[in-house]
Amino acid sequence: MTTLLYDGSFDGLLTAIFEVFEYRYKDVEIVSRERFHQENIFAEIHEVITQNDKAERVLNKLEHNIGKQGIHELLKVYLSEDPELEQLIFSAIKQSIKHPDENILKNYADDDILKISKICKSVSRERHRMTAFVRFEKMQDGVFFAKIDPDFNVVPLIRKHFKDRYQDQKWMIYDLRRNYGILYDLETCDFFYPDEKLDLNKYQQKFHDEEKNYQVLWQRYFTKTNIVERKNLKLHIQHVPRRYWKYLTEKR
């Protein structure tokens, strides 16, 4: 058994997969350094250094075999943070190389491909809900701030949506669980990585005066338009699960 340790990045994972074929390893496992716990003392450790050219060669091969959409599906598996993500992506890549003329991601008879399909649906659903349930709050400096805590690492998947939709204002979206986010300053839309977790109490103290008034108005509007006689909590929770209520101004 050879254990390939990589840095946890998507390019690092693709580099590791490239080196499996480069060094003709047979019995392998690919693990990020962050999650590595050596259980097999006889396993050979191979340290992977991320190399963009190797990752690019894997991507080019994948684009030829399964297309850009297929690559996007594998990226969703990576962002799912599933414990088996390396094994699933590696399995799909091996199958795409073995069957270059087939769309292997449609072969649901294969257990790995079926699990990839289920993961992609879950990640896509979470991405959609993040675009629907994100609530921005205006800060004193004019920046609109939103905090999220998604089940999956969907921040890279919602970046384009918000950049296209809110081009006329500065905003930032912060992932509470993973301690990073997106910042748009009217010119660039980049990821930011704080050294320490943001102190949300300090941020709440920096709300713009207008924001507090808007929140009160919105809560009143939500209350006034609610028809008690037609209340269907079960249906409401089906469309807006409770775990998203913490984002919604009208639920406070």
Fold blueprint:
Elements: E1 2-6, H1 10-22, E2 28-32, E3 44-47, H2 52-79, H3 85-98, H4 111-133, E4 137-138, E5 144-148, H5 155-165, E6 171-175, E7 180-184, E8 189-192, H6 200-204, H7 209-225, H8 233-239
Parallel strand pairs: 1-2, 1-3, 5-6
Antiparallel strand pairs: 4-5, 6-7, 7-8
Helix pairs in contact: 1-2, 2-3, 2-4, 3-4, 4-5
Task: Explain how this protein is built.
The protein is of the alpha/beta class. It folds into three domains: 2-126, no CATH class; 134-208, no CATH class; 210-251, no CATH class. Helices cover 47% and strands 14% of the residues. The chain contains eight helices and eight strands; from the N terminus they run βαββαααββαβββααα. The strands form two sheets. It has a five-stranded mixed beta sheet with strand order 4-5-6-7-8, with helices on one face. A three-stranded parallel beta sheet has the order 2-1-3, with helices on one face. Strand 7 (180-184) and strand 8 (189-192) form a beta hairpin. Helix 2 crosses helix 3 and helix 4 runs parallel beside helix 5. The longest helix is centred in the first third of the chain and has 28 residues, at 52-79. It is elongated and about 65 Å long. InterPro entries: DNA_repair_put (IPR023875), DUF4130 (IPR025404). Pfam families: DUF4130. This is Probable DNA metabolism protein. Residues 84-250 form the DUF4130 domain.
